[in-house]
Design brief:
- The protein is an all-alpha fold and 112 residues long.
- The chain has 4 helices and no strands.
- The protein is rod-shaped and about 80 Å long.
Length: 112
């Protein structure tokens, strides 16, 4: 007995083959995304430097000047996988949480 698809023309078989390839690619993509989701974040290789410059500095913990905020954001960009131990669980970056100058425009305070 002949295979059921043998009687179809090549043009009729092509959409099925394409659909199977698309399904296969989608399945592989889902598997890869799922595998990556379980991996921990990349470790911070410069944590000691980051702790001093970000987590323990006046500039990034108490300063309300616009310059401080921008400098701390630039520092975070240079150390994208680092975070301070004092930050809450959801906070993954300097700008991702509450900081002294957040929501203020321009320099503020006694010396502005």
């Amino acid at each position: 007995s002949a295979h059921p698809l043998a009687s179809l023309t090549a043009a009729a078989r092509f959409p099925r083959a394409l659909a199977m390839k698309i399904f296969g690619a989608a399945l592989v993509s889902l598997v890869l995304v799922g595998a990556h989701a379980g991996e921990p974040d990349a470790p911070c290789e410069t944590q000691a430097v980051f702790d001093v410059r970000m987590c323990e500095s006046f500039m990034c913990t108490e300063c309300q000047l616009d310059w401080c905020m921008k400098a701390c954001q630039e520092l975070q960009e240079k150390h994208p996988t680092c975070r301070c131990a004092s930050w809450t669980g959801e906070r993954t970056s300097y700008s991702g949480g509450e900081f002294e100058g957040k929501g203020k425009y321009g320099d503020v305070g006694d010396y502005s």
